[in-house]
Amino acid sequence: MEMNEMFQPGEVVYVIVRNPHVQGVAHVQQAAVVVNPDKPYELALFSHETYYPLTDDFAVFKSEAEAERAYQEAFGTANIEDVDYFG
């Protein structure tokens, strides 16, 4: 099933976004599924005033909990208490 068939305009979804400027930094971010303003027959993700095509390039989740689980599987947990910091 294609991404455009899995979601409906108006749905709130969660995506894992990597920081393009810092290697290894990513976070879960909320986005809205909308009709792509450039291609009205396709859907897009709208987040932070920007449209992104809804493609398989994005890991899109229907719930924040599901996105957080996938994030932890991919990147591990960042438990500050378990980290020794000297500085």
Task: Please characterize this protein's 3D structure.
This protein has about 90 residues and is α+β, with helices and mostly antiparallel strands. It contains two helices and five strands, in the order αβββββα. A five-stranded antiparallel beta sheet has the order 4-3-2-1-5. The longest helix has 12 residues, at about 65-75. The termini are far apart. The relative contact order is 0.22. Residues about 80-85 have low confidence and may be disordered.
Key words describing this protein structure:
18% helix, disordered C terminus, five-stranded antiparallel β-sheet, alpha+beta, globular
Percent of residues in helices comes to 10-25%
Shape: globular
Estimated share of beta-strand residues:
25-35%
Distance between the termini: 50 Å
Number of strands: 5
DSSP summary: helix tally: 2
Indicate the topology.
Blueprint lengths: L2 H4 L5 E7 L7 E10 L7 E5 L2 E4 L6 E2 L2 H12 L12
Antiparallel strand pairs: 1-2, 1-5, 2-3, 3-4
Question: Quick summary of this structure?
Answer:
This protein is α+β, with helices and mostly antiparallel strands and 87 residues long. It has helices at 3-6, 64-75, and strands at 12-18, 26-35, 43-47, 50-53, 60-61.
